Structure formats: structure tokens, C-alpha cells
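lol forgot to send this yesterday, sorry. C-alpha cells for the thing we talked abt
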């Protein structure tokens, strides 16, 4: 078996005359009811932050699996840390869980990334920012944003 690759995609059961579904022969329509929790976590781990939060609202079982998995929240939080490393490190140092750290910093990371990419480089007045989500940013972040503007 050396050299053979193992497929990590979900297995679809094809039933004659029916649509493919993630189901067992028992007829359950919820993959999380039939798979070990670790496999469900692995599937949920492929979601982005917004999709993960939506999935947690799908049913009680999905909510339980997602809410109890520190690894899922850690994975998402490390993506946010790529943009907001000081904030994430500070929250973790202060004892916040991965989920709380993510919730506290997700919007900030989106706003900061937009500023650093130059999305707001041509803003002429505050009216142009109406309807856009803004959050308080620390002085170091404003320094990064100003430097990025100078470098453009």
C-alpha cells in the first residue's frame, strides 16, 4: 500500500434513482450523526470563519461539535492572527479562549486588511465610509496603515 494516496474527500453514496447524498445505509441525512466527531471536525475545518459560524446554527449536533472544538476556533483565529498578531497574542495572553479571541478580532482583521490593501486610499470624506464596518484600531496599526499608504 506504500505510495497509494488516501482520499480525504467525503464518500458519496449513490442510490439508484436518487440524488447523491452524505448518508449511511441507515438513511440518516446528517453526516455528523454517522461519522466520528473527529471526522466531522475535519469537515468543519474546511470552512471559512463566516461559514463555520453559519454551520454552528444549522442544528444542535453541529453546534455542539463546533462549539466544543478548540481546534476549529484555533485554526480560524490563526488566520486572523496573520493580520492582527498583536491583538490576538494579547487576548491569548490575557486568557481568552480561541473562540472569544476570534470573535473579538475577526472584524478588526477584515477592516485592517482592507486598509492595508489600499481599499480606502482614495477616500475624500467620511461620507464615503457610510455603511462600511469600522472598528477602533490601535496606534501601531495606524502606523502600519500610514506606512503602507506612503509605500504606495
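and heres what i got for the seq, position by position
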Amino acid at each position: 500500500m506504500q505510495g497509494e494516496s488516501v482520499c480525504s474527500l467525503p464518500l458519496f453514496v449513490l442510490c439508484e434513482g436518487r440524488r447523491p447524498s452524505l448518508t449511511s445505509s441507515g438513511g440518516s441525512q446528517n453526516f455528523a450523526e454517522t461519522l466520528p466527531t473527529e471526522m466531522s471536525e475535519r469537515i468543519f475545518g474546511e470552512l471559512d470563519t463566516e461559514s463555520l459560524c453559519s454551520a454552528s446554527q444549522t442544528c444542535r449536533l453541529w453546534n455542539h461539535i463546533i462549539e466544543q472544538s478548540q481546534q476549529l476556533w484555533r485554526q480560524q483565529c490563526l488566520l486572523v492572527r496573520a493580520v492582527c498578531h498583536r491583538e490576538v497574542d494579547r487576548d491569548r495572553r490575557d486568557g481568552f479562549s480561541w473562540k472569544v479571541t476570534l470573535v473579538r478580532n475577526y472584524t478588526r482583521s477584515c477592516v485592517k486588511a482592507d486598509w492595508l490593501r489600499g481599499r480606502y486610499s482614495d477616500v475624500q470624506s467620511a461620507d464615503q465610509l457610510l455603511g462600511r464596518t469600522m472598528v477602533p484600531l490601535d496606534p501601531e496599526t495606524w502606523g502600519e496603515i500610514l506606512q503602507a499608504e506612503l509605500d504606495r
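The radius of gyration is 21 Å. anyway ping me if u want another try
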